[in-house]
Amino acid sequence: xxxxxxxxxxxxxxxxxxxxxxxxxxxxxxxxxxxxxxxxxxxxxxxxxxxxxxxxxxxxxxxxxxxxxxxxxxxxxxxxxxxxxxxxxxxxxxxxxxxxxxxxxxxxxxxxxxxxxxxxxxxxxxxxxxxxxxxxxxxxxxxxxxxxxxxxxxxxx
Length: 157
What we know:
Blueprint: H1 3-18, H2 34-40, H3 44-53, H4 55-58, H5 73-87, H6 98-113, H7 120-125, H8 133-154
């Protein structure tokens, strides 16, 4: 057997074998963003934008696409979610201090302004997550107004 054929067979066997090992899914039951929504009170349009563009990677509940059932894609997606939640987790909002909430909203403003969020890798497969300029502006303005509430709480008495 030629070396190329042997390598191809080994790679195929590895590919088949990894299909049986999956990373844990990021799926929590219940209203995992209730505290965030109650506290920040986003308008309906912002709430929908956050749900469609942010929650899959920045909350404890991801809606997985069909291709997540194929390794190594499942590992790549799990890594993106883990990294996203490390930076901001809307489901963990109740555990953030007022200072940290203010900082997280500051980062939202920065990332949306610079077009870094949502990630291109996400919008390639989630067309509905691409933000228009109007949506970007709306998120930024809402985040600025919401930050002001946290900044009031940070003022010394």
